[in-house]
Design goal:
Low-confidence stretches: none
Oligomer: single chain
Helix content: 25-40%
Structural class: alpha/beta
Distance between the termini: 6 Å
Number of domains: 1
Mean pLDDT: 97
Order of helices and strands: EEEHEHEHEHEHEHEEEEEH
Strand content: 15-25%
Strand order of the largest sheet: 4-1-5-6-13-12-11-8-9
CATH superfamily: Class I glutamine amidotransferase (GATase) domain
Number of helices: 7
């Protein structure tokens, strides 16, 4: 175990600001890595062609895949064409999916949130619902974009933690409420993944991988939002940080 801070790579979103392209990541994720996991956040640009995953992985101790306004492109999992106006980010797809596969294979501690959770499922062969609220029996998991951030990120629904997964080992609670700010969600679970938590409507909300060499957790909700105020979020980032320090 090293005395230096472990480094966590965070793949960026590719966005235009005016006429110029930017590579960006939300501050709430960056701050949660620094303060919740007690690690050094390092933003990874999503260039074209992508940076070499082997070079990136040789320089980081962990990975965090963030949420985003964009969706994983459906051609990555055999889905139908996206509807007009649904934001795509092919640059991020190209970098993140391969980095996920290589990182997990290399035993890099990894935390995946919202879009990152969906990327994890797609990277290992799963599929997604593009519009969960249109699936029979599912609730509307989207946020009210006209509401304040406190309301958007407030508790929205309950979930139940399943036995046998990483989440069950991290948090003592077997039922708790989470926020909900997503339109996509897991349809077919990747074969190598375990459903760690299920929402009241049957939607998978957390996954891990029993065969992973190191920490690998994906969550559909946003534990990074005011992480220090929520015991489940604190436990998740603390466990991620502990795994990072063991690996660094």
């Amino acid at each position: 175990m090293s005395s230096r801070l472990p480094v966590v790579g965070i793949p960026c979103d590719y966005r235009l600001a005016g006429a110029h392209p930017f590579h960006m990541a939300g501050e709430k994720y960056i701050a949660a890595v620094r303060d919740g996991a007690e690690a050094l956040p390092l933003l990874i640009p999503v260039l074209e062609p992508p940076l070499d995953p082997s070079e990136l992985l040789s320089r980081v101790d962990g990975l965090l895949f963030t949420g985003s306004p964009s969706n994983v492109a459906p051609d990555r999992y055999g889905g139908g064409a996206p509807r007009e106006g649904v934001l795509q980010d092919h640059r991020r797809d190209e970098t993140a999916l391969e980095l996920l596969r290589r990182g997990v294979a290399g035993g890099i501690p990894t935390l995946c949130i919202c879009r990152g959770f969906q990327e994890l499922n797609v990277a290992f062969g799963g599929t997604l619902h593009q519009h969960v609220h249109e699936v029979e029996g599912r609730r509307d998991h989207r946020e009210d974009k006209n509401a304040s951030l406190d309301v958007q990120y407030g508790p929205a629904h309950e979930l139940r933690v399943a036995k046998g997964g990483l989440l069950a080992r991290i948090v003592p609670e077997r039922m708790f409420r989470v926020n909900s700010l997503h339109s996509q969600g897991i349809d077919r679970l990747a074969q190598d993944l375990h459903a760690d938590a299920i929402a009241e409507d049957g939607q998978i909300e957390a996954v891990s991988m029993p065969s992973a060499q190191n920490f690998l957790l994906g969550v559909q909700w946003h534990p990074e939002w005011r992480w220090a105020e929520n015991p489940v979020s604190r436990a998740i980032f603390a466990a991620f940080g502990k795994a990072l320090r063991r690996a660094s």
